[in-house]
Amino acid sequence: QVQLVESGGGLVQAGGSLRLSCAASGRTGSSYATGWFRQAPGKEREFVSAISRSGGSTYYADSVKGRFTISRDNAKNTVYLQMNSLKPEDTAVYYCAARLGYYSGSYYASDFGSWGQGTQVTVSS
C-alpha cells in the first residue's frame, strides 16, 4: 500500500499558474503509475492526467491538454502537476491516485487503488 499526500492548491486568478505535488510514502513511489483527478461541487470526479511508473508515458484529458504538465521525480517519490493558464472551470478539489503495476492509460478512477485526501484549487475570474 502507498500513502499519498497532495499539496500546492490555493486561490489564483484566471490565467495564473499553480503546481500541485503528490508525495508518496510506504511502498516505493516508482512502483506506481500516478494520476490526478478532480471533483467540482455537484459534479463527478473526472480524470485530469496520469503518468506511468517510469515517467515515460503521460496522459491528459482534452480539457487540460496544452495547459497542464505532469511529471515525476522517483528519487523524491513525488509527482507534480504544473497547471498554467488556469480557468475558472478548473476550480475543484484535486486528488492524486496511485495504481500498482501495469498502467494502460485508463481514465477510470476505479483503476486506481490508493488516493490522497485532496487539495482545493480555486480559480477566480
What features would you describe in this structure?
The protein is an all-beta fold. It is built from no helices and eleven strands. The strands form two sheets. Strands 2, 4, 5, 6, 9, 10 and 11 form a seven-stranded mixed sheet that branches. Strands 1-3-8-7 form a four-stranded antiparallel sheet, with no helix packed on it. The protein starts with a strand and ends with a strand.
Please, what is the average pLDDT? 94
Q: Describe the biggest sheet?
A: 7 strands, mixed
**Helix/strand class:** mainly beta
List low-confidence stretches: none
Shape: globular
Helix-strand pattern, N to C?
A: EEEEEEEEEEE
Q: Assess the beta-strand content as a share of residues.
A: over 45%
- Spatial extent as radius of gyration: 13 Å
Number of strands: 11
Q: Helical element count?
A: 0
Distance between the termini: 40 Å
Helix percentage: under 10%
Concise overview:
The chain is mostly beta strands.
From the structure above, extract its key features:
seven-stranded mixed beta sheet, mainly beta, 125 residues
Q: Topology of this protein?
A:
Elements: E1 2-7, E2 10-13, E3 18-26, E4 32-39, E5 46-51, E6 58-60, E7 68-73, E8 78-83, E9 92-100, E10 114-115, E11 119-124
